[in-house]
Sequence to fold (448 residues):
Amino acid sequence: MRKTIYFLLLLIPICAISQQILPEVERARVVDEILEERFNTLLPKLMDDTGIDMWIVISREYNEDPVIKTMLPATWLNARRRTILLFYRDKAKNTIDKLAVARYNVGKSIISAWDKEKEPDQWKRLMQLIEERNPKTIGLNFSKDHNIADGLDKTDYDEFMAHLPKKYHAKVASAEQLAVRWIETRTPREMTIFNQLVDITHDIIAEAFSEKVITPGITTTTEVEWWMRQKVTDLGLETWFHPTVDIQRTSEELVSHLYSFSGRPDNAVIQRGDLLHCDFGITYLRLNTDCQELAYVLLPEETEAPVFLVNALKDGNRVQDFLTQNMVKGRVGNDILAKALQAAKEAGLKPAIYTHPLGAYGHSSGTTIGMWDAQGGVMKDDGENYPLNPNTAYAIELNATVHISEWKRDIRIMLEEPGFFGEDGFRYINGRQTELMLIPRPKVQLGN
Fold:
């Protein structure tokens, strides 16, 4: 006798987070181990590559330089008083000094080099350390072109220059290239962790865009946003921006790109036949994700998304391909943007590209590839002249405008996925969306 059963086809997991999330004590261990590796292995190479043999990072409590925030040990949530870090690279001896002009060590890697009882003045002690090493170049964190590399405040700059012997003034230079390289460069261990972090992000989106959270005709976009925010909190994680969820449907016209991020209506009720879009990112182990994905709410008679939406997503994937194919080592952001847009338009697509560096910060430093309101290229102070370097991560963020004749309107396929550019080229850190998520997940009939 033939027996029929039904089950939920789980196209993507919707009930559990597939990656283990570490308790705080284990997170601290991992963060400090990675930091030690970055100081001892990565930093010497970056200092050699950028021609800075002494890097001084100065910051005060609650007014932290963005760079110093990435250098503090896991148990330091802020700088303390005025925290001064000095890194000196002796390439000939293949050594690197990691010193703190502070009363105590800064973690295991950076050793205190100030005894206040012997020298009460912190600035004078810093000058002694400089003169003992006699650097060729003194890099400070000031920059016109890169905001994250511009963390030295005016008060500390003025104090530093006032105490610095005149013979060293000509050696002072912007450390912007070193600071950006430090922020953007990922180690192999960090990329292993990044894969897990993106997996967690995908799992949360999949659960949010499922019948577990959404009941058509009842659930609102605002409720889904707060569900995602609460899910992150319940997991013991953080989000670096508030999630957004928006709707495109047959009865409405395409609005400004800004609508997806600001100005969209609160508490829009999700209906059958809606195309949903979210923007969502989390922070874990000092790395950040940034993802935009799409879901379709099935009509009662449907078991799959309409072909016209399936094909629209394919157009979005094609724009992704044109972008990532043009990510070439040493090519600057505006050149990548122009070449990718031209190739996509020649293929009959209507693209917009606004990809940004990703990693230690959500909107991080590095090669900027367009902005949503600057498709002709970004200005110099937004990083357009900065080359694409290997071992860097990006939020591959873009959209394709597609005309849907069945809906008598244009829609915008907005996608964003974390990607990695290495010595062998580009790859997505943990895949990309190539199929629409379906709400509810379709039931499939099986026989036995």
User: Anything to note?
Assistant: Residues 1-15 have pLDDT under 50 and may be disordered. The longest helix spans residues 24-50.
